[in-house]
Amino acid sequence: MRPVCTFNVVPSIPDRLRPLVQLAYNLRWTWDHDTIALFRRMDPDLWETTGHNPVAMLGTISQRQLEELAQDEGFLLHMERVNEQLSDFMSAPTWYGKQFGEVSKATIAYFSAEHGITECVQIYSGGLGILAGDVLKAASELGLPLVGVGLMYQVGYFRQILNAEGWQGELYPVHDFYRMPCRLARRPDGVRATVSVPLAGRMVAAQIWEVQVGRIMLHLLDTNIEENTPTDRAITGELYGGDIETRIQQEIVLGIGGVRALHQLDIHPTVYHMNEGHSAFLALERIRHCMEEEKVPFAVAAEATKAGNVFTTHTPVPAGIDVYPPQLMDKYFSQYYSALGILRKEFLGLGRQNPDDDHESFSMAVLAFRMAACANGVSRLHGQVSRKMWQSLWPGVPQKEIPISHVTNGVYPRGWISEEIAELFDRYLGRRWVENPADQGIWERINRIPAEELWRTHERRRERLVTFARRRLRQQLMRRSATRAEIDGADEVLNPSTLTIGFARRFATYKRADLLLHNPDRLARIVGNKERPVQIIFSGKSHPKDNLGKELIRQLVKLASREEFRRHIVFIEDYDMAVCRYLVQGVDLWLNTPRRLYEASGTSGMKAAFNGALNMSILDGWWDEAYQPAIGWAIGRGEEYEYDDLEHQYEVESSILYNLIEEEVAPLFYDRGGGGLPRRWIEYMFASMRAICPAFNTNRVVHEYLMRFYRPADERYRLLIENEGQQAKEMVGWKEQLRKNWSQIRIERAFTKMPREMKVGMPLEVETHVHLGKISPENVCIQAYIGPLDRDGQIVDGEAVSLTQQQAKGDDLYAFSGNVPCRETGLHGCAVRIVPKYKGLCNPFEPGLILWSK
């Protein structure tokens, strides 16, 4: 039965408890142990049953309990303390304000399809969302003028349940947004703010939810409103759900709708950051809006807005990229073609690796690369993989110089460190570890913590993890209608004193959760070792359509039920942020076993390291640049295997893994000296935190984005857009003339002056004569390119050195020369090339023009 009206019922909070509402709706509590303790103090059981949701608690707790709390002086003092801390935090001068001056409105928009802020706001599925959440928290800490944009999913990601055979099933509980820490955005007149988004000839409306993350506001679009048809209401129904058409609809709402939502709220950023390609349509909406506001043509608007776009790619394999067939693009963008004033072929070319291929699908990643001034991968190794993967977008450019850099991921320390470890850091490092966790000097003092205190604290966290795992296992068995003996046996699994390994992540096949299970007999000997036992806790979800991933989980659960494993191996269902915290705060060793080059970064091992756990991993993602002896273990030496050699790879790497556990990890853990302390293991803990904590945190990440990308992008955008886009118009005209006349240039002659053999450090003298036609020498850069030769005689890992113009040789013939340093031994080669040069270019390869000597 449909209601005649709708209304929202809010709790009747006694006046003395009013600060609880403000505290509940600002997600600063997610990283503040004192505020969490306050909510838990209200009703510990209710805190757990609401999924750590203080807004739901306030709407569920009995009026009698509220009245009692209003008379509890101890509780009131606690509440006043944390409320004052929140007020002080919100009003305190920020790092950004001190460095660059306070700004009244956001100038940076951070778009992501998922955001992992807290487990009670289930709009995330994995690492992409967790990173986005941690970036927002760090931006809040630093005081950046940043705003987040995403989607508010009605069911979010699924809840995982396993049947008696271990096969994954999915539940999709519907979110009640009015019982979550979010509020509807409203116009000045109090009416809820909405935006209209064009979808295949119709307009779809979306309302905007606001989530306060410390000083940062996250805006989330929701199409489940009465103005829409039932089909359109379902667009924001499920994260990564539905078919390809649902996906393109979601990405249009996110990208185009997200830009419109910000303008509706009178927020006009100069920099837009696309966290993965899902939001790349925002680049098109920025262009359309610029054309409309500034009355400029497409080319000028594209030039100006591109200067303010940043793109982060997280995907190391082509199969992970969203692509849409031309027919689907026509369905949703045919009207947009004319709105942008360009032809269909030109529009579709923006998302094609080969713009001239009329049959090629439209790639969101290609669109993002083409329309962003800066692009990056999420680890050093992933940057290398991305440059190789997308080299075709920059023809003629050596792989090393492809304009895709890297910003290695990090974690927000306060959101993942246990309360006990945080107290140790406060006591021995001072509060600067909170304010500036990227300061190496702070972590150099980590050895001030007494070894015994660190170890006993870590042991308490392991004990809590074991208690948590037993409780969850019991609940899982009861849900599966297991026998009473099986349920009671849950209290016997794991041992609070045993070396504990954690493995938790999405169960995709390339992450290889089964590497550790490859030889069950050997694994049984390892976990059942009487003197040096080992136990393993697994957790993770497989995508609902990934049957291979589900089969991995089934095999694991089946193995864990065998008598030789059931006390030593546990699989915890429904992996989320709460489960993750227990694991990273309690395990001794974090295990990661992806196929090399398939893990873009990973961050779980960083979280574990902040809590004193050690890492063992394939040299992939972040661990490839973090690993060093005496802070953890590397599985292999970075070998790469062919796809058809996977079985051999499993054999080799599983054997290495077993050997490391048996011969190095377990002996180190159980080598106890005075006071029963594993002193050498503790030395590893100190060394790990000293190396990892200052480098792999999101304060460093956000600072790096700000200084390398955001501020330069802001300056470029403002420069190009001012004076009615005069600079952008000049840039467009310059590019048009450059492309028109580029075919006239040629390298007449290139030669070097050198002895038969060069010694390291000697300069190589290079001279070249070039015809430039109608192109001015000021608009090109003539470079010598030197580097070692591969077996095919090609220059690899070369270095470009600009040559200096000498006297003119004729009307359009110029001489350039310079000295190029020889930095290393071996057979080298030298070439000459010409690339464009202009004051507004983000990089010389942006126009797609390059000429090499022959």
Can you walk me through this structure?
There is one protein chain. With 854 residues, the protein is of the alpha/beta class. It contains 30 helices and 28 strands. It folds into 4 domains: 15-91, no CATH class; 95-242 and 253-269, Glycogen Phosphorylase B (Rossmann fold, 3-Layer(aba) Sandwich), CATH 3.40.50; 427-696, Rossmann fold (3-Layer(aba) Sandwich); 745-852, Immunoglobulin-like. Strands 1, 2, 5, 6, 7, 8, 9, 10, 13 and 14 form a 10-stranded mixed β-sheet that branches. The longest helix has 44 residues, at 698-741. It is globular, with a radius of gyration of 29 Å. The model has no long low-confidence stretch (mean pLDDT 94).
